[in-house]
């Protein structure tokens, strides 16, 4: 497999990159600045790429945030909700059509590089809040990407039926540098410990019974 990994510098995409490299795949990492308020994740992505000694490109499209407004992740005027992902308020973190846009960009990069696969780390815990992480979306997007060019291109999504705790366990088994990953939507010096992704991160380490290496504000 020659895979472009949609790489945020977060826990999920880091475990995915580690798993693919462990399986012997040729991997390129692609990070995208789409105007996210937690742009700090991009610096973590770069540090992780150096740790992996893996080629990485960062595509800078911060103006995307202006046209993908209405989300607390791209619009500072929208309050960032705190609490568990199961809460209705977490829908404020949905960025309209984000994964279709990012996967399409990754597809173009993969095809131009002679790669045959795009990999992204959507997991079962994402399904309730994020429509573009559902299996139905991934299946449809995979079909569309497969028709996008004369060359073969597939969408690899091995975590779609796994929980966040499962990914922590997998990362631990792979000796992935989970301590270097960034999840927090607030994007401050340390993880806030209160936003949905921080709460999910803490819960996942607890359920996996693996010590959480993350520094939280509280």
What would a concise description of this structure say?
The chain has 218 residues and is an alpha/beta fold. The chain has 7 helices and 5 strands.
Encode the helix/strand succession as letters: EHEHEHHEHEHH
Task: Give the tally of structural domains.
Answer: 1
Percentage of residues in DSSP E strands? 5-15%
Given as residue ranges, the uncertain stretches (5+ residues, pLDDT < 50) are none
Give the overall silhouette.
Answer: globular
Terminal-residue CA separation: 42 Å
Radius of gyration: 16 Å
Individual helix count: 7
Category from helices, strands and their pairing? alpha/beta
**Main β sheet profile:** 5 strands, parallel
CATH topology tier name: Rossmann fold
The CATH class is Alpha Beta
């Amino acid at each position: 497999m020659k895979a472009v990994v949609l790489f945020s510098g977060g826990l999920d995409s880091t475990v995915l990159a580690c798993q693919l490299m462990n399986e012997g795949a040729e991997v390129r990492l692609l990070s995208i600045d789409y105007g996210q308020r937690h742009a700090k994740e991009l610096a973590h992505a770069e540090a992780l790429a150096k740790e992996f000694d893996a080629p990485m490109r960062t595509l800078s499209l911060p103006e995307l945030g202006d046209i993908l407004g209405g989300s607390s992740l791209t619009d500072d005027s929208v309050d960032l909700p705190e609490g568990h992902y199961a809460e209705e308020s977490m829908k404020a973190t949905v960025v309209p059509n984000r994964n279709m846009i990012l996967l399409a960009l990754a597809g173009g990069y993969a095809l131009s590089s002679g790669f045959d696969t795009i990999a992204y780390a959507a997991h079962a815990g994402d399904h309730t809040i994020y429509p573009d992480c559902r299996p139905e979306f991934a299946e449809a997007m995979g079909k569309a990407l497969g028709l996008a060019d004369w060359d073969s291109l597939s969408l690899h999504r091995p975590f779609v039926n796994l929980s966040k705790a499962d990914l922590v366990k997998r990362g631990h088994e792979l000796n992935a540098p989970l301590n270097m990953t960034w999840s927090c939507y607030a994007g401050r010096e340390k993880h806030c410990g209160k936003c949905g992704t921080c709460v999910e991160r803490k819960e996942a380490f607890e359920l996996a019974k693996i010590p959480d290496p993350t520094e939280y504000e509280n």
